[in-house]
Design a protein that fits this description.
Blueprint: H1 10-24, H2 30-35, H3 45-54, H4 58-71, H5 76-85, H6 92-97, H7 102-107, H8 113-122, H9 124-130, H10 141-160, E1 188-192, E2 196-202, E3 217-223, H11 225-235, E4 239-243, E5 245-247, H12 250-261, E6 264-265, E7 270-272, E8 279-284, E9 290-295, H13 305-309, H14 312-317, E10 320-324, H15 329-339, E11 348-352, H16 364-367, E12 372-375, H17 393-402, E13 407-412, E14 415-420, H18 440-457, H19 462-477, H20 488-496
Parallel strand pairs: 1-4, 1-10, 2-8, 4-6, 5-7, 10-11, 11-12, 12-13
Antiparallel strand pairs: 2-3, 8-9, 13-14
């Protein structure tokens, strides 16, 4: 597994991830702080206190507070790295005085993160000498990205979650009201599933056997149900960690970078040295229909029982666990057992049965450990009663609920069917649109939104089902967009304005 050392508090995790996202957005600039995703940095108690005390807007306050935190980093290398990768320009005067060419100084504040990193590494030793410290051995680009930068952001986060101290000339000022100090805590979610890299061909027709067709577009994207559900949950403001196995090749690094950019914690990933990351070839039609072939590289990439057992505390402490059939059956079984092993609190367990196991199925015991099974009809044929010769969703649901399953959600185009032990009156998912194309991605949005709303409300209800369905419909409507997984505002707008 990757490094599992956790920051001192959950707040530090959120702030460190927000800094990583800011790095990708072009750096430490007030306008980018104003537009930054979930606004985690703007809601920091230290930022709110600074804004109130100095009568400035939160983006400007965040700029000043983060800049101060960078200057106060005790480790000189960390100051240089933070200043460079965030494009802050706080050390520019020292670099100029040391004789650096103006082009180098400008490059360290370039819009492109790649350009800032390249300049930092090319001038590593001289940048250290410019601020009067000796330079450690210059790291590789990979070490800078994967080890040094996360540690720098962790240290910055620790400083930023502290209250902004009163300044010497303001002894009588009162701190910002305690009621405004902390945002409402986000739910903790663990996703156990697949991480693959997708090659997506968009076309108007799926070619027949021994024929070919022209594609309108070709995309290379991080994928897998585990990745998609983790990203979807993070977009909803949840604190998300992904548990998955991948290689340390270029595709694996792109997946890790994507997750970090989306505020998903990557510390629980199992990264296999020298292994090739699983790949998927997808052919996608204009309305979202698709076919796919998955290469899992099972001989090298495997998330086993031992990997899951190392995470028992994280699983039992979570508010929700989202799991998929992308992991081996025995690994899924152990995940379910751990989710039910704690005393008192148990996380809500939501399982996606894709891809279906070829020759195995969940045992009766483990079906009883699942709160929500969210699937398509073709994935669940194996779970029909033995005497059934045709697919009957009602008989399937009766069979599964008799074996202890909490709720079955069968998704279909336009809406979906629900069979629940807790809300027996609900039979069809509430829909806000006349058309919604259900796909693997929209199902991932549904599962993430279901987890988020259950954490909010504490129990399943018609309103929870409506909110999750609206998230699915948003993802269907936005499937051509780069940010197709909806945030909370997008879902609420959908519920207010269905058409």
């Amino acid at each position: 597994m990757a490094n599992r050392e956790e920051p001192d508090t959950s707040e530090a995790v959120v702030v460190a991830l927000a800094l990583q996202k800011l790095r990708m957005r072009g750096g430490l600039v007030a306008s980018r702080l104003r537009d930054a995703g979930d606004g985690s940095l703007l809601r920091l108690p230290s930022v709110l206190e600074h804004a109130a005390r100095h009568e400035v807007e939160p983006p400007e306050a965040a700029l000043q507070v983060i800049s101060k935190a960078i200057r106060e980093l005790a480790n000189g290398t960390h100051r240089i790295v933070a200043d460079s990768v965030l494009g802050a320009g706080l050390l520019a005067d020292a670099y100029v005085e040391h004789g650096f060419d103006d082009r180098v100084v400008r490059s360290l504040r370039a819009t492109s993160l790649m350009q800032r990193r390249t300049t930092l590494l090319a001038n590593w030793r001289q940048l250290h000498l410019a601020i009067g410290i000796s330079a450690p051995v210059a790291p590789s680009d990979r070490t800078l990205r994967g080890t040094i930068e996360p540690e720098v952001f962790r240290q910055l986060a620790r400083r930023l979650i502290l209250p902004d101290p009163l300044e010497p000339d303001e002894p009588d000022k009162q701190p910002f009201p305690a009621s405004a100090r902390r945002p409402r805590p986000a739910g903790r979610v663990i996703v156990v599933g697949g991480a693959v890299f997708d090659f997506v061909w968009r076309t108007n027709v799926i070619p027949q056997h021994e024929t070919s067709t022209l594609a309108d577009d070709c995309l290379l994207l991080p994928g897998g149900k585990g990745v998609s559900q983790a990203v979807a949950a993070a977009r909803l403001g949840l604190k998300v960690s992904l548990v998955a196995a991948l290689g340390d090749d270029w595709f694996g690094q792109m997946i890790v970078d994507h997750l970090r950019d989306e505020n998903v914690d990557t510390s629980l990933l199992k990264i296999v040295p020298g292994a090739r990351t699983p790949l998927t070839g997808v052919m996608e039609l204009s309305l979202g229909d698709s076919i796919a072939a998955v290469w899992r590289n099972k001989s090298a990439i495997n998330l086993g029982i031992r990997d899951i057992e190392l995470l028992s505390r994280q699983i039992t402490d979570a508010d929700a666990v989202l799991a998929t059939f992308e992991v081996p059956l025995e690994t899924l079984h152990r995940t379910l057992e751990l989710a039910r092993s704690g005393t008192g609190h148990h996380p809500t367990v939501i399982v996606t049965p894709g891809q279906p196991y070829r020759n195995d199925r969940l045992s009766r015991q483990h079906l009883g450990m699942i709160d929500f099974l969210v699937g398509h009809t073709w994935e669940l044929k194996r779970y029909l009663p033995p005497d059934e010769t045709r697919f009957d969703p009602g008989r399937l649901a009766e069979h599964l609920l008799d074996r202890g399953l909490g709720t079955l959600c069968l998704l279909e185009n336009g809406s979906g069917l629900v069979y629940s032990q807790t809300v027996p009156e609900l039979r069809r998912l509430p829909t806000t649109s006349s058309f919604s194309k259900v796909s693997a991605i929209t199902r991932d949005a549904f599962c993430a939104a279901l987890a988020a709303k259950l954490i909010d409300d504490g129990q399943f209800s018609v309103g929870v089902a409506a909110w999750a369905t609206a998230a699915m419909e948003c993802a269907a409507e936005d499937y051509t967009e780069s940010s197709m997984m909806p945030d909370r505002d997008r879902i609420e707008r959908k519920l207010r304005n269905p058409s």
